[in-house]
Amino acid sequence: MSNNYQGMLSGDALAALQQQLNRSSSAAAAMALQRQLLQGGQLSPDSASAPGVVPVAVADQYLTFSLSDCQFAVKADAVQGVERLSILTPVPNVASWLKGVMNLRGSIVSVVDLRAFWGLEPIPHTARTRLLSLQQSEMVICFMVDAITEMLAIPSSTIVYGNMRQVGIASWAAPYAAGMATVNNRAIILLDVARLLFSEKMQHYEL
Q1: Whole domain around residue 97: which residue ranges?
Q2: Over pLDDT 90: what percentage of the chain?
Q3: Domain tally, the chain
């Protein structure tokens, strides 16, 4: 099997978002993504304007999500969209964390269970379980996460870089972390999308 299973998302809503991402700054892209999530019921209006959020002009916009007992964030301009769970087509002879592929408006996209990828204990899917589509260069993969939390502006002054294990990031997430931010007394792990999508483990999913 090859990476032909990695498909670009398409469709009216996501096509509009893609145009925004291609021609706008990260701040404008984040606003477009936020509108999409609000319209789709993925975020509440309160989470989009939570008190204490730093203005866009002085901070990068991130989409945050939960997995296990941790909070993660990815830069908004790496997000292609957020989808509810749908029917997956299994793929033979692949790692157990690659749950299959799905057709999203005519495009075939691989779906990775992020819990299984990181070796975490499985839990039943809930009404909040989501598929988070991330893109780096031409690679697009959907990741199954526990819940989408909010759009959040994170200033660089709140981010700690360096040895990720030394700053308290779990060993299973550390290889894919770009840093740790503290916002409103919450510890948020910032994921390096390129490092995750192009990791050796992600690229060698055949059995």
Answers
A1: 3-203
A2: 51
A3: 1
